């Protein structure tokens, strides 16, 4: 009887070992599923900033063709015929319509001369031509789009915008948006008189030495708050009188030290000389 039962016990152990054993490809399948889910979440998160808005609807083929002609005539000598970049200028593949609208709309591009950074000047292209050029560059690869008007009206939260501006922007642009010097001859330009769309595009694309503040760093509504704060500064001049260029307490202290104490010393010398 013992011999008859022995195969049964062995078979039971074999079945237990087979049923409790994991398939060799199970680990790879789990890794593949995890990578797929991670990639899907990442792609969905990064698709939001490039979602089309009222100003970023698909450009017509005619716009793209006109933009291609403008690019070949004005930009290809530096950026290459296919916008892939050269030793003189970077590639424009993936920069999006917002970068083109900012650089060309503010006159920074095409550059007048080489220098530490492209400086603002009167635009060389009309608004329609700028939009055509932006449509062509945007057709080459996905990138940040021109922002919707709903974020540019200056009707956000100015107090929240002031806090965001102090945290993210004031170290270069000054708390009053007056601009400031950087290293190697570069500078952060003043923000007074800059249109809201160009302020938004600068945050979105990070021109020159400016960091990129995409919609994960600063949301569109927060960008609108910053624009509201800068609009408030435009409409409300310094309540204390002469602003001294909005250069802050150092400039004000230096002004008082030189002119205030200088006037007192001069007055004392005048009184002494007159009495003698």
How does this model look, in words?
This protein has 11 helices and 2 strands; from the N terminus they run ααααααααββααα. The protein is mostly helical and 276 residues long. Among the domains are: 61-140, Cytochrome c-like domain (Cytochrome Bc1 Complex, Chain D, domain 2), CATH 1.10.760; 149-236, Orthogonal Bundle (Cytochrome Bc1 Complex, Chain D, domain 2). Strands 1-2 form a two-stranded antiparallel ribbon. Helix 5 (96-105) packs antiparallel against helix 6. Residues 62-141, 156-234 form the Cytochrome c domain.
Which tags fit this structure?
single chain, 276 residues, Cytochrome Bc1 Complex, Chain D, domain 2, 1% strand, 11 helices, two-stranded antiparallel sheet, mainly alpha
Count of DSSP-assigned helices: 11
Q: Between the first and last Cα atoms, what is the distance in angstroms?
A: 140 Å
Largest sheet: 2 strands, antiparallel
Beta content: under 5%
Question: Which series of helices and strands comes N to C?
Answer: HHHHHHHHEEHHH
Give the neighbour order of strands across the main sheet.
1-2
Structural class: mainly alpha
Shape: extended
Radius of gyration computed on alpha carbons: 31 Å
CATH level-3 fold name of the domain at 149-236: Cytochrome Bc1 Complex, Chain D, domain 2
Helix content: 40-55%
Mean pLDDT metric: 82
Low-confidence region ranges: 48-57
CATH architecture descriptor text of the domain at 149-236 = Orthogonal Bundle
- Find the count of extended strands (DSSP E, 2+ residues): 2
EC number: 7.1.1.8
Membrane topology: Multi-pass membrane protein
Region (Disordered): 1-23
Organism: Gryllotalpicola reticulitermitis
């Amino acid at each position: 009887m013992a011999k008859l039962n022995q195969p049964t016990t062995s078979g039971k152990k074999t079945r237990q070992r087979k049923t409790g054993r994991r398939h060799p490809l199970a680990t790879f399948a789990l890794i593949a599923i995890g990578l797929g889910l991670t990639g899907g979440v990442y792609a969905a998160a990064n698709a939001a900033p490039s979602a089309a808005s009222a100003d970023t609807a698909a450009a017509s083929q005619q716009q793209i063709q006109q933009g291609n002609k403008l690019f070949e005539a004005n930009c290809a000598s530096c950026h290459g015929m296919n916008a892939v970049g050269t030793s003189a200028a970077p590639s424009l593949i993936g920069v999006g319509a917002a970068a083109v609208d900012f650089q060309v709309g503010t006159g920074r591009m095409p550059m007048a001369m080489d220098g530490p950074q492209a400086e603002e000047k009167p635009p060389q292209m009309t608004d329609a031509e700028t939009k055509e050029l932006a449509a062509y560059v945007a057709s080459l690869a996905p990138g940040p789009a021109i922002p919707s008007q709903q974020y540019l009206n200056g009707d956000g939260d100015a107090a929240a915008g002031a806090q965001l501006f102090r945290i993210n922007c004031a170290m270069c642009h000054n708390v009053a948006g007056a601009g400031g010097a950087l290293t190697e001859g570069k500078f952060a330009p003043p923000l007074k008189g800059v249109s809201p769309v160009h302020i938004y595009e600068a945050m979105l694309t990070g021109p020159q030495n400016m960091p990129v503040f995409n919609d994960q760093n600063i949301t569109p509504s927060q960008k609108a708050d910053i624009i509201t704060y800068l609009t408030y500064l435009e409409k409300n001049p310094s309540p204390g009188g002469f602003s001294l260029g909005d250069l802050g307490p150092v400039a004000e202290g230096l002004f008082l030290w030189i002119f205030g104490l200088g006037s007192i010393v001069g007055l004392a010398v005048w009184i002494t000389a007159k009495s003698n």
